[in-house]
């Protein structure tokens, strides 16, 4: 019997709608984790209460040239969607939000801001307006993506029990770009070198067969450049025989299109 049968499902995905809020924040920290990957922290009193009970949610970062006077002005500013990595309150009592940016080379407004905006620069934070939550306990895990998916892979990896079968694959440019990711299993990095983004990850997924499936009813998260969707679905649906409704497969970005936003 296929694990797509609801009688054998070990978990379900619950989606939750949230009230859309807009918050003001300022850039307070920047840390380069590799040559093309940067983590930033923004802080602000309006970030108090930020967050959701979900395991997968997205926010929109607004980057106006000047601090806007109204929410309407803020919403007209250039913006991009991101996965919030972590949030809370600093030891000094200031609410904060951490974000990570993968830089692709020909950067759009968000990449430029992440790597060169001065500390103290303003940004707006919209959302999250919805969240996805895993209810139950998958009997296995596959997390795979490129650099843009690392924040979400970090969040999902926190949910994996120590004894659960799991595979974590991350495509990066090369060995110098491999990042530390806390997980109960070793993270396998695949290096694309000068190949088209997603090619190395697609090849790795294409080499997997039924014996590589972690568990009978694993949770699957695969996200990278838009071209990853087809080979990812081929693995999950065709070779593993899993339903797609309870897996998360997305093109997070599109090569050559800095305006592209994945559907969340």
Describe this structure in words.
It is a single chain. This protein is an alpha/beta fold and 264 residues long. The protein folds into 2 domains: 126 residues, Nucleotide-binding domain of ferredoxin-NADP reductase (FNR) module (Rossmann fold); 110 residues, Elongation Factor Tu (Ef-tu), domain 3, CATH 2.40.30.10. 15% of the residues lie in helices and 34% in strands. It is built from 5 helices and 15 strands. The strands form 3 sheets. Strands 6-5-9-2-3-8-7 form a 7-stranded antiparallel β-sheet. A 5-stranded parallel β-sheet has the order 13-12-11-14-15, sandwiched between helices. A 3-stranded antiparallel β-sheet has the order 1-10-4. The chain is globular and about 55 Å long.
Describe the SSE topology.
Layout: E1 11-17, E2 22-34, E3 37-43, E4 56-57, E5 59-62, H1 71-75, E6 79-82, E7 86-89, E8 95-102, H2 109-116, E9 122-126, E10 130-136, E11 141-145, H3 150-157, E12 166-172, E13 188-191, H4 199-206, E14 219-225, H5 229-239, E15 248-253
Parallel strand pairs: 11-12, 11-14, 12-13, 14-15
Antiparallel strand pairs: 1-10, 2-3, 2-9, 3-8, 4-10, 5-6, 5-9, 7-8
What is shown here, in short?
The chain is an alpha/beta fold and 264 residues long. Helix content is 15%, strand content 34%. The relative contact order is 0.18.
């Amino acid at each position: 019997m296929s694990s797509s049968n609801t009688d054998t499902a070990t978990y379900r995905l619950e989606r939750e709608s949230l009230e859309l809020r807009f918050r003001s924040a300022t850039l307070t920290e920047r840390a380069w984790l590799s040559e093309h990957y940067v983590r930033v922290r923004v802080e602000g009193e309006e970030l108090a209460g930020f967050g959701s009970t979900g395991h997968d949610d997205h926010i929109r970062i607004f980057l106006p040239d000047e601090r806007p006077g109204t929410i309407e002005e803020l919403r007209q500013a250039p913006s991009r969607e991101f996965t919030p990595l972590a949030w809370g309150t600093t030891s000094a009592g200031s609410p904060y939000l951490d974000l990570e940016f993968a830089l692709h080379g020909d950067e759009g407004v968000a990449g430029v801001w992440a790597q060169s905006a001065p500390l103290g620069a303003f940004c707006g934070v919209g959302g999250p307006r919805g969240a996805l939550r895993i209810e139950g306990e998958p009997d296995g895990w596959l997390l795979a993506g490129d650099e843009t998916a690392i924040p979400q892979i970090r969040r999902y990896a926190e949910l994996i029990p120590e004894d659960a079968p799991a595979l974590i694959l991350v495509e990066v440019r090369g060995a110098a770009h491999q990042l530390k990711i806390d997980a109960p299993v070793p993270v396998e990095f695949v290096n694309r070198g000068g190949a088209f983004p997603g090619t190395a990850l697609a090849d790795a997924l294409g080499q997997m067969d039924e014996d590589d499936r972690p568990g009978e009813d694993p949770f699957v998260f695969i996200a990278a450049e838009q071209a990853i969707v087809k080979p990812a679905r081929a693995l999950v649906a065709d070779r593993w025989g899993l339903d797609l409704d309870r897996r998360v497969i997305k093109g997070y970005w599109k090569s050559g299109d800095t305006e592209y936003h994945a559907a969340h």
